[in-house]
Amino acid sequence: MHADGQSFHDVIVIGSGPAGMACALTAARGGASVLLADQRPGPGGAIFRVAIPGVPPVSLARAQKRLRDRLFAGLENTPAIQRLPEHLYLGLDADGLVMLEDRKAGQVKTFRCRILCLATGAMERVLPRPGWTLPGVMTAGGLQVMMKETGRAPAGRTVLAGSGPLLLAVAAQLARLGTPPLAVIEAGDPLRQLSAGLGLLRWPGLCLEAGGYVASLLTARVPWHRGARLTGIEAAADGLAAQWEDRHGRVHTLAADRVALHDGLAENSFGLAPSGSSQNAPGHPLVLHAGDCREALGAPAAACSGETAGEICLHVLAGRTEPAERLQQRLKTATSRYGKMQDLIARAFSPQGGAQHFTALPDDTALCRCEGRTIGDLRKLFTADPGLSGRELKLNGRFAMGACQGRFCAANTAAAVAELTGSSLPVSTITGHRWPVRPVPISSLIRLEPGKADHAEEAPQ
Ligand SMILES: Cc1cc2nc3c(=O)[nH]c(=O)nc-3n(C[C@H](O)[C@H](O)[C@H](O)COP(=O)(O)OP(=O)(O)OC[C@H]3O[C@@H](n4cnc5c(N)ncnc54)[C@H](O)[C@@H]3O)c2cc1C
Question: Secretion signal: which residues (predicted)?
């Protein structure tokens, strides 16, 4: 307990994926008092998502299974870690209080700590396309989560489109569960990127995993169209019609029940206080980012960066302070070899014919789903005022103004601006940093925690 009556922990870790679990284990084993919170009911994060009771866990590659078993056993055997499932991190308030929403109780709780380690993972990137907001269109990662939780593949005809190795993984999982997709439409062509492919041979486990996915697709006769792009989706009498263009510019249509899109992974760092910051104010914790929310490099790198963050926690708690840049460097060095691997994967899957995407989109393509703003609206704004700032784009154009506050559209909006105007607009200039990082009901904010002082009159910022 802190002097001001707030619950106190040496370290609060947000996110119980590989990074958060590794950080909590390292810090707790070194004697720190640790609180590990996650919005989900169980640990595991995106990769080790636990199936609903009665459903056997999905099969994992050997190295992934070893990592999962090690982290889960560690968590079971370290009762010193206080776990707080179904608690959503909302942010740090102006007094340095960590705000968590207890989702079951519908109540915001506040905590103090010396170090706040944010390990909130990655989120999927999905580029806008005509028809991408239609019912039946989802993300490939969302489809994968459904299969991990239920152990079943959805019935019907599925098309996977976009770019990246996750498309292959999801296609193979669908095939292994007995419902192979109609096709995988991949913008890149990893089989033609010889030097990247040769470089990746330094990671034999990864190559074996990828080979296993390709073998599943070959066995199930799933076409893997490389150097191809999905140009639009339309509602049809019996579901959806997905138009795609092959590497020679020929246009094809596939009738499907669902289209699952994926264009890569990006850090889920939306609205988070920067890593290394202690906001230079008394009572504020040191903030660290670990795992994919720091840099989306995959599960082994996430565990490695979580361990390093845990070691940093122990150093800081022992009174050994380091400048923020040194802390950042330590986290970067720990995962540098995984960075090289991800660079090669990105090269292998780089879209054929260049990365331009937004220029070719018709004006009525939705860009901001919450506010119904289109690429045409964006073009009009910049034609009228080419020097528009991020804040003006938000306030005048209503981009990133809706319920998600830009969590889903700001990165695409910034990329569209860069492509259309040639000038870069950092995402944070559109969204800013503030809490809550996710929408929270007012009833949760004003509901008092038993035994705590009445903060209801203090307006949140
Ligand atoms: C959709 C998806 C599918 C993937 N599929 C694969 C795959 O097939 N193979 C593969 O090798 N890698 C896959 N990855 C990548 C892999 O999951 C990650 O590299 C790895 O899990 C990163 O670990 P992490 O601990 O950094 O984050 P995560 O494992 O993502 O864990 C982050 C945790 O933080 C929690 N969280 C996030 N925000 C909040 C908040 N505000 N409050 C409270 N809790 C919060 C989440 O619930 C989650 O449990 C996938 C990633 C995604 C996003």
Answer: none
Closest CA to 61 of 212, 218, 220: 212
Pairing mode of beta strands 183-186, 158-162:
parallel
Instruction: Tell me how far apart the alpha carbons of residues 96 and 114 are, in angstroms, rounded to a whole number.
Output: 10
Tens digits of per-residue pLDDT, 310-346? 999 999 999 887 777 777 788 888 899 899 999 999 9
CATH homologous superfamily of 125-260 equals FAD/NAD(P)-binding domain (3.50.50.60)
What pTM did the predictor assign?
0.92
Give all strands (DSSP E) within 181-318, no chain letters.
183-186, 224-226, 229-236, 239-245, 251-256, 258-262, 265-267, 286-289
Name the residue ranges covered by the structural domains of the chain. 8-121+268-321+444-450, 125-260, 358-425
> Is 391:425 a contact under the CB 8 Å cutoff?
no
Ligand 1 centroid vs 149 CA: distance in angstroms? 14
- Give per-residue pLDDT as tens, 37-64: 999 999 999 999 888 888 887 778 888 8
CATH number, span 8-121+268-321+444-450: 3.50.50.60
Distance of CA 33 to the CA centre of its chain: 28
Is it true that domain 358-425 has CATH number 1.10.10? yes
Ligand 1 site residues (CB inside 6 A) read 14-20, 37-40, 45-47, 88-89, 119-124, 141, 144, 166, 169, 265, 291-292, 298-299, 302, 437-438
Cα atoms in the Cβ-side hemisphere of radius 13 Å centred on 36: 32
